Amino acid sequence: MRLDQFDLALLEAVQQDATISQQDLGARVNLSSAAVNRRLKKMNMHGVIRKTVALVDPAHLGYALTVITEVEVESERLDLLDAMKRSFLACPQVQQCYYVAGACDFVLVMLVRNMEEYTQLTRELFFESNNVKGFKTLVSMSNVKVGTAVPVGSEGH
Amino acid sequence: MRLDQFDLALLEAVQQDATISQQDLGARVNLSSAAVNRRLKKMNMHGVIRKTVALVDPAHLGYALTVITEVEVESERLDLLDAMKRSFLACPQVQQCYYVAGACDFVLVMLVRNMEEYTQLTRELFFESNNVKGFKTLVSMSNVKVGTAVPVGSEGH
DNA sequence: CATGAAAGAAGCCGTAC
DNA sequence: GTACGGCTTCTTTCATG
């Protein structure tokens, strides 16, 4: 799908705040509310906009700790990797999981209430998998930036 | 702010899809649309819901690569660290940045169009800071999970 | 104090131009 | 692309347990 300057301007706006009314969006990008409606609907259908969600502050739900875990696997056998991926996907505390090339194999970003909860999770996710050679834990002291906005237009030099 | 079962059920729903109408939400949790409206407004004001945003598919904007970078700093002097944090915050390709305890000091999750863009960013962010001892690059081969939903209720173990 | 019902305001979205 | 109009959704008020 081809995106013009109007689409990009709309994407930039709704990535910051999806509650802005379509006529306010129109005023911002110089378009009628009907045109805004059509463009947003199109981008939703084409998957440019994956979904619209509320972002919840983890602290208000007791999730005080962000932990990053680098996991090294024993075997790269596809069925074993898939089983691991599935267990990471199913775990609600796992916010993100990347399968990476490099020194380790998986990088996980997790949200936990306390260290006990993390310890418990490492048992479930790593020890019980029987395919984890080792893992390294990095505890976040400061979540400097936790963003969701994809760069739009010419921001990225 | 104290959250009851209704609030938690609403949070769980709007974290998945914030476009559901308030009366549909009400039907789901057994509450009138007016009550849903009041509760959502309250949680917005108290910061339990930080914001509501559209999630954009990076691939549709040409951002094909996810790169994780572990940065080791030269000096832990506060003013130098702050300057680094600011530069990470200001960089739109940096999706997340954590200041961590452990083997390295910063973990960055970045979204780039290609390796050239990443190389260019490492120059701007790391070499020009004059406070980076070294960094390790992990390229994601598969974004297994990139979620935003904070666990709610008894999902956690 | 939070709820549900109902009325008024605001926003969405199809049709026409 | 814009302008209009019906229809849905939101939001406030008010009486109630």
Walk me through the structure.
Two copies of one chain form a homodimer. With 157 residues, chain A is an alpha+beta fold. The first copy, chain A, folds into two domains: 5-45, Arc Repressor Mutant, subunit A (Orthogonal Bundle), CATH 1.10.10; 58-139, Lrp/AsnC effector binding domain/regulation of amino acid metabolism (RAM) domain (Alpha-Beta Plaits). Chain A is 38% helix and 30% strand. Chain A is built from five helices and five strands, in the order αααββαββαβ. Chain A has helices spanning 5-16, 22-29, 33-45, 78-90, 115-127; strands spanning 49-56, 65-73, 94-101, 106-112, 132-146. In chain A, helix 2 packs across helix 3. The radius of gyration of chain A is 20 Å and the shape is elongated. The model of chain A has no long low-confidence stretch (mean pLDDT 96). Chains A and B meet through helix 1, strand 1, helix 4, strand 3 and strand 4 of A and helix 1, strand 1, helix 4, strand 3 and strand 4 of B. Strand 3 of chain A pairs antiparallel with strand 5 (132-146) of chain B.
Short recap of the structure:
Chains A, B: One of its GO terms (biological process) is response to amino acid. By secondary structure, chain A is an alpha+beta fold.
**Total domain count of chain A:** 2
Which second-level CATH architecture of the largest domain in chain A applies? 2-Layer Sandwich
Give the helix/strand class of chain A.
alpha+beta
CATH fold node name of the largest domain in chain A: Alpha-Beta Plaits
Quaternary organisation of the protein chains: homodimer
